[in-house]
Write a structure and sequence with these properties.
Elements (H helix, E strand, L loop, with lengths): L1 H43 L4 H6 L6 E7 L6 H9 L6 E8 L5 H9 L1 E4 L13 E7 L5 E6 L5 H11 L4 E5 L3 E3 L3 H11 L4 E10 L4 E3 L2 E4 L6 H23 L10 E5 H6 L10 H15 L5 E12 L5 H21 L10 H16 L1 H18 L4 H29 L6 H35 L13 E3 L20 E3 L6
Parallel strand pairs: 1-2, 1-6, 2-5, 8-12
Antiparallel strand pairs: 3-4, 4-5, 6-11, 7-12, 8-11, 9-10, 9-14, 13-14
Length: 500
């Protein structure tokens, strides 16, 4: 009995230090990112997108858009991509077996006609391509129709096989790119064409913002708490977390919602793994492993300036599906690339990034769940003192809240995307709300994702509900500065229930 009591007490102490280490690592990454943000801010006045646009060495880009039942957003999304400021590009939409009006709406909006374009077959797809269509209105738009395999990666691979430009940009159909986003994310390839093989751009939450012709005119927080909390997550993890990893040369994830890659390197690793639910991270990890094994010098970078606005779930059911899929995708990645773990041959990816993701991301929900039970049992048996429970709560919740507030402060000072004081207040309120209830639910969803992978449940892309674009009154979209919009504009606001 004494041995069990001692073990329980020691376990609680270990878990306490686990939470301290977890949040300290977040804080360290944010600190590294803050230094990088300061450096980029100082350089901003000397950097011109016009130079990249006019530079004859700026490589052309194939933008690949996988789409499955996206009738609510597809036309506006494609129009926004076709309006991007870039010297030469094409948009390839892959209709992955949609059963709604995704293709009819594209055909009507862009005057699509079937063409005889044969894929070279450099990347094999599971679902057969049934037709290739081109816009007859002069737009650089190709639409590929294929049989759905239920996997997003298979749809992207079909677009990769048809692309013929040296850079490929993968963008989700429910995403909106700022007009200079492609120029900004292509800049590293222009500055260092011999070594940069992949670049990721910043993902922001579009829910609640005012949209005009496929552009976010006025960034706002959603009226729904679930979307606000996810906005805090995206700032902490997708902005500052990834910028910190990029600075360390150990960036493992480039979001599938917005990433730019050298096509030849993607072909070398065989394209995206169609059976992976975390195909974006899996692709980046495969590139790291392939180029490290070959002894080639390369860089994978994150650029915080280009912005891709995306929908996030506004219902718990949809969010649960997304986070279970992400968690399972991470488990698949670690299993497939386990030979890289702890090996100096793979640099910071093998010795720092992958061990970090295993310890804090993959095992995190397991440790958190067990720690709650151990703490409650310890209190009930009198093994754990109330003061220790307070210290435990401060390490697990209070420290995490401090990290989120630091991330929000840095984002506000550096980028100032939200122009209203109410939005800033909502951000900090959401950071507080995240720690009480949401974070525990999130751990449960992540735990179920790991369980799904262990049990070997069938993996599929799945479907998300969408609200699409809805017209709103002009007065509702008045900018924070107090000025008005042109009266002739039709302003639309995008409110959504689904995710990327």
């Amino acid at each position: 009995m004494n041995a069990a009591v001692t073990a329980l007490r020691d376990f609680n102490v270990v878990v306490l230090w686990y939470f301290v280490a977890l949040n300290s690592s977040y804080l360290l990454l944010i600190g590294i990112a803050a230094v990088e943000v300061l450096r980029l801010t100082r350089r901003a006045s000397f950097v011109s997108h016009d130079d990249i646009f006019a530079n004859p060495l700026t490589p052309p880009v194939s933008i690949i858009v996988p789409a499955h039942n996206e009738e609510a957003v597809i036309v506006e999304s494609v129009r926004a991509m076709l309006a991007l400021k870039y010297s030469e590009f094409e948009v390839i939409v892959v209709d992955d077996g949609s059963t709604d009006d995704t293709f009819p709406r594209l055909r009507e909006a862009f005057e699509l006609e079937r063409i005889d374009r044969v894929a070279p077959g450099k990347i094999k797809t599971i679902g057969e391509v049934t037709g290739v269509y081109a816009s007859q209105s002069g737009e650089p738009l190709i639409v590929v129709r294929k049989v759905s395999a239920g996997l997003r990666a298979d749809a992207v691979n079909a677009g990769l096989d048809l692309a013929h430009y040296p850079l490929v940009c993968m963008v989700d159909a429910d995403s909106l790119l700022e007009d200079t986003a492609l120029l900004a994310v292509a800049k590293p390839f222009v500055d260092d064409p011999q070594h940069v093989v992949a670049a990721g751009g910043l993902i922001r939450v579009a829910n609640g913002s005012s949209i005009y012709r496929g552009r976010v005119e006025d960034a706002r927080h959603s009226s729904r708490w679930l979307a606000r909390i996810q906005n805090v997550e995206y700032i902490r993890s997708f902005l500052l977390g990834r910028l910190g990893w990029s600075r360390l040369g150990s960036l493992l994830i480039i979001s599938g919602a917005f990433g730019l890659f050298r096509r030849d390197v993607v072909l070398e690793v065989g394209g995206l793994d169609p059976h992976s639910l975390g195909e974006d991270a899996e692709l980046v990890t495969s590139i790291h492993e392939h180029l490290r094994a070959a002894g080639r010098k390369y860089r994978v970078v994150f650029v915080p300036e280009p912005v891709c606005w995306t929908e996030v779930p506004e219902s718990f059911a949809q969010l649960a599906k997304q986070r279970r899929r992400w968690s399972r995708g991470l488990a698949q990645l670690v299993r497939k690339h386990r030979r890289m773990l702890g090996r100096p041959k793979y640099g910071g990816i093998g010795t720092v990034a992958l061990p970090y993701y295993v310890t804090f991301e993959l095992l995190g929900p397991v440790i958190e769940a067990v720690s709650v039970v151990a703490l409650v049992v310890g209190l009930a048996l009198g093994v754990v003192s109330p003061w220790f429970a307070v210290a435990f709560g401060l390490a697990a919740v209070g420290y995490g809240l401090l990290v989120s507030c630091c991330a929000l402060t840095i984002e506000e000072i550096a980028f100032h995307r939200y122009r209203r004081w109410t939005d800033l207040q909502r951000s900090f309120a959401a950071a507080i709300a995240e720690s009480f209830g949401y974070r525990q639910l999130h751990s449960w969803w992540r735990l179920r994702g790991v369980y799904d992978e262990i049990r070997g449940h069938e993996a599929a892309w799945g479907e998300m509900e969408r609200r699409g674009f809805a017209a709103v009154e002009l007065d509702d979209c008045a900018p924070a500065s107090g000025g008005g919009h042109d009266t002739g504009r039709e302003v639309v606001s995008r409110t959504v229930e689904a995710s990327q």
